[in-house]
UniProtKB/TrEMBL annotation, chain A:
InterPro entries: Caf20. The keyword Protein biosynthesis applies. It comes from Suhomyces tanzawaensis NRRL Y-17324. Residues 41-97, 124-151 are annotated as: Disordered. This is Cap-associated protein CAF20. It holds the Pfam family CAF20. Belongs to the CAF20 family.
TrEMBL record, chain B:
This is Eukaryotic translation initiation factor 4E. It comes from Suhomyces tanzawaensis NRRL Y-17324. The lineage of its organism: Eukaryota, Fungi, Dikarya, Ascomycota, Saccharomycotina. Belongs to the eukaryotic initiation factor 4E family. One of its GO terms (cellular component) is cytoplasmic stress granule. The keyword Ribonucleoprotein does not apply. Keywords: Initiation factor, Protein biosynthesis, RNA-binding, Translation regulation. One of its GO terms (molecular function) is RNA 7-methylguanosine cap binding. SUPFAM superfamilies: eIF4e-like.
Amino acid sequence: MAKYTEEQLIELKEEAYVPQEGILEAFNQMVEQVREHAAAEYEKHKSIKWGNGDTYIDENGNERSYNHLNRRRASRSSGNKNPRKKTGEQQVDEDGWATFSKAKKSFGAEDEDDRQSFRQAVKDGLIGPNNAVRVKPNNKNLGSSKAVDPRDAIADKHTNTFNAFEALGDDDDDE
Amino acid sequence: MSEELTKQTEELNLESKTVFDNKEEFEAKHPLNSRWTLWYTKPQTNKSENWHDLLKPVITFSSVEEFWGIYNSIPVANQLPLKSDYHLFKEGIRPEWEDEQNSKGGKWQYSFTNKREASGVINDLWLRGLLAVVGETIEDEENEVNGIVLNIRKQAFRVGIWTKDCEDSKLRTVGERLKKVLQLSDEQKVEFISHDASNKKGSEAQIVL
């Protein structure tokens, strides 16, 4: 079995002989085409990611994009939790179970109490079909920023429509 | 008797080629033990290209001189585009695990994950790998090695030696030599995984050196 050590093979490096030059030239051309394609793809991707297509010619005559002006601020969504968000306190009971108590709501917390008292009143029979319910509107939530139902807007809208029959009638009256 | 001699002479003539028969063969002063084929995996540049279109045999050679001629004429490892592979396999073996000669085997491999650091040495290390394979010093007499592969990826350069089977006793020498060829420290481990296992999700290396 003919074996050659690394040193023996390196000694023969100068004896290099190219068997089929045409094939190797074609191969090199193919690799070069792939490289050019990859470079073009990279440029395309880069411009899609950062640029809006606007470019300028710099002092050396190179076309450059306005990346530095158009770049958006990095998103906070990846990794950084909202620092303002409060987490509930952890309570550990005698058995070692840990429970997160609900964080106190910044608004609407008293609704919970109202709901409880309403439920209790129903249970006690104070409120029900035989008893009138005195509703006190909670004005606090009326100033909602919710979009107005567009159908309501249409219903309320004052419209001036031209009715030909009415118009004819008017004419008759004038006469 | 004379008939027998004539036949023997004819056979001898077929075996020993002269420069008149084949000029290219005449250049071969240092024949290799095996004939080797260089393959290239071309990165996909068109979505209609499938794996078979991308895997291309480049050239086959059988002497040390031809090896150097080819090596000097093709791009070195760190100049290959991403997602390229070089494969150097014995002639007749496709660098695919489905090939009959590979199907029961596996590969020893090491990934150079620090590409910035490795890009300065990968050309030399890949050449050392090639020399160990064509010179057949990567193993003793086991005849286990089918070929060597270089993968150029975004995260790493990976060098692998593909073997005929998965017998632990036959493979250790190859693994140990690959480690030397790639100049790895004790902490840098080469791993062997069978082709069967590497096709299953979550499978681990069978031998680690």
